[in-house]
Structures are given as structure tokens and as C-alpha cells.
Write a structure and sequence with these properties.
There is one protein chain. By secondary structure, this protein is mostly helical. It folds into 2 domains: 23-83; 102-158. It is built from 2 helices and no strands. It has helices at residues 10-83, 85-164. The chain is elongated, with a radius of gyration of 55 Å. The termini are far apart. The model has no long low-confidence stretch (mean pLDDT 89).
Length: 165
């Protein structure tokens, strides 16, 4: 360590110069490593971007190809049972059974719906008839009560008139 008061010997100056040179080399090596790492990072980012674009392009091609192959397989599977005469008969028999089963199910459901509708109509008719009977009976009671009241008032009015005469 040199101070302003002391003078260095040539050996000390040489050692100090070597230390400074070593520090500069280390710093240069660090900067070089950092620059190399930054360049690698940039290259990797460019590669990643390129890979993403490539993957999107591949998907744009592979999706329709895959859909076409699935459709082709479905058609082959649908036609395969009809190609052979024995399997064709079996397939037609299965289809006939399925159709007749569906028809029976539809018939049962229709019958159930009809019966439900008939029950609802009967219930509604009974309710309306009951309400009509109740109203008619109430009206008859009211008329009878009013008639009695009028006859009573008429009788009392006749008695007043006959007592006056």
C-alpha cells in the first residue's frame, strides 16, 4: 500500500502492478462471461420465438389432417358391418329391434300422456260441477230466505193495514 509519504521499492511497485493487472483480467473475464451469457440468452429467446411460430404452423396443418382421418375412420366403421352379407343381416336385425323398441317406448309415453290428460280433464270437470252445485245451492238458499223475509214483511204490512181499517 503506497502512501503519499513513503516511496515504494521496485519490488513493491511490481507487486502492485501485478495485483492491478490480475484485477483487470478478472474484471475483463467477468465482462466477457456476462456478454457471452447475454448473447446466449438472446439466441435462446429467438429460438423460443421461432419454436412457438413453428408449433402454431404445425397445429394449423395437423388439426385438419387429424379431423379428416377421424371422419374417415367413422365412415369405415359405419360401412364395415354392411359390407359382408352375414353382418349386414345382423346389423339390419339389430336396427329393426332398436326401431321397434323405440316405437314401443314412444307408444307407452303417449299412453301415459293421454291418461294424464284424461285424469286432469275429469278432475277439472268434477271441480267445476262441484263449484256450480255449491253456487246453485247458495243461490236457492238466498232466494228462499229472501222469499220468507218478503212474505213475513207482507204479512206484517197486511196486519197493519187491516188494523187501520
Amino acid at each position: 500500500m503506497a502512501t503519499s509519504q513513503t516511496t515504494q521499492t521496485p519490488t513493491q511497485r511490481k507487486a502492485t502492478a501485478q495485483k492491478a493487472a490480475a484485477t483487470r483480467r478478472r474484471n475483463a473475464a467477468k465482462r466477457s462471461r456476462s456478454a457471452r451469457k447475454a448473447a446466449e440468452t438472446r439466441a435462446q429467446a429467438e429460438l423460443n420465438t421461432l419454436q412457438v411460430v413453428q408449433a402454431q404452423a404445425e397445429r394449423a396443418v395437423l388439426i385438419p389432417v387429424g379431423a379428416t382421418l377421424v371422419a374417415r375412420d367413422s365412415v369405415i366403421e359405419a360401412v364395415k358391418p354392411l359390407a359382408d352379407s352375414t353382418t349386414r343381416e345382423q346389423e339390419l336385425s339389430k336396427l329393426q329391434k332398436r326401431v321397434s323398441t323405440n316405437l314401443r317406448r314412444f307408444e307407452r309415453r303417449g299412453t301415459t300422456a293421454r291418461n294424464r290428460a284424461v285424469r286432469e280433464v275429469k278432475r277439472t270437470r268434477t271441480r267445476v260441477e262441484r263449484e256450480l252445485r255449491q253456487r246453485r245451492n247458495q243461490t236457492l238458499r238466498t232466494v228462499k230466505q229472501n222469499r220468507r223475509e218478503v212474505e213475513k214483511q207482507l204479512k206484517s204490512a197486511r196486519q197493519r193495514v187491516s188494523s187501520l181499517a
